[in-house]
């Protein structure tokens, strides 16, 4: 369905612009943001900013969902990443405040958990602690930089115990 225009959504079916109708029990819309290029700022996936949050135009800064942070370079994103979450925005705001008051400050992102905000399955994941192994004893995957292993979670085991149906309880739990 990627790239198909949406004509309408009923409670159990989706009508595409090409006339196709698809049965559905759930609809997820992930349309994202697109950087506006009218100001002449360098953009890639978003407005490109350096480690001080300055854009390609001197004394013009960006942060939040509209910024592509050079500080967030990884093996999966060599030109930086957009980080549309609260904790990265808070870190960026602190660095920007320091830079705007004359204290040159590089934006450095701390280890940050990511919250998946959905009432169906509230979930928080985070990279494992620094060191050679995860809490479960698995070796970290060096392909993800700094020994970080992408978090993997069995949804049934991550569900908060007070809300987890008894059939989903982990063995011994």
Derived from helix and strand composition plus strand pairing, the structural class reads: alpha+beta
**H/E element order:** EEEEEHEEH
What is the CA-CA span between the terminal residues? Answer: 40 Å
Quick one: biggest sheet? 3 strands, antiparallel
The proportion of residues in beta strands is 5-15%
How many distinct beta strands?
7
Give average pLDDT, whole number. 70
Q: How many domain modules?
A: 3
Low-confidence stretches: 142-173
Quick structural gist:
This protein is α+β, with helices and mostly antiparallel strands.
Strand and helix layout:
Layout: E1 6-9, E2 13-16, E3 21-23, E4 47-49, E5 67-69, H1 86-100, E6 114-116, E7 123-125, H2 155-158
Parallel strand pairs: 4-5
Antiparallel strand pairs: 1-2, 2-3, 6-7
How would you characterize this protein structure?
- There is one protein chain.
- The longest helix has 15 residues, at 86-100.
- The protein has 173 residues and is α+β, with helices and mostly antiparallel strands.
- A hairpin with a 4-residue loop joins strand 2 (13-16) and strand 3 (21-23).
- The protein starts with 5 loop residues before the first strand and ends in a 15-residue tail after the last helix.
- The protein has helices at residues 86-100, 155-158, and strands spanning 6-9, 13-16, 21-23, 47-49, 67-69, 114-116, 123-125.
- Helix content is 11%, strand content 13%.
- The protein has 2 helices and 7 strands; from the N terminus they run E-E-E-E-E-H-E-E-H.
- The chain folds into 3 domains: 1-31, no CATH class; 47-100, no CATH class; 113-173, no CATH class.
- The chain has a 3-stranded antiparallel beta sheet, with no helix packed on it. It has a two-stranded parallel sheet with strand order 4-5.
């Amino acid at each position: 369905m990627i790239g198909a225009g949406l004509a309408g959504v009923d409670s159990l079916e989706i009508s595409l612009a090409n006339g196709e109708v698809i049965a559905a029990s759930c609809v997820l819309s992930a349309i994202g943001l697109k950087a506006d290029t009218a100001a002449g700022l360098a953009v890639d996936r978003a407005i490109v900013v350096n480690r001080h949050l300055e854009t390609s135009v001197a004394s013009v800064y960006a942060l939040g969902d509209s910024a592509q942070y050079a500080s967030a370079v990884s093996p999966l994103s060599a030109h930086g990443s957009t980080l549309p979450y609260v904790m990265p925005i808070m870190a960026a705001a602190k660095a920007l405040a320091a830079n705007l008051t004359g204290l040159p400050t590089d934006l450095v992102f701390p280890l940050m958990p990511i919250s998946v905000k959905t009432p169906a399955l509230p979930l928080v994941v985070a990279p494992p602690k620094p060191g050679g192994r995860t809490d479960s004893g698995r070796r970290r995957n060096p392909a993800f930089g700094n020994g970080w292993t992408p978090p993997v979670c069995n949804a049934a085991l991550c569900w908060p115990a007070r809300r987890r149906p008894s059939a989903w309880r982990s063995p011994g739990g």
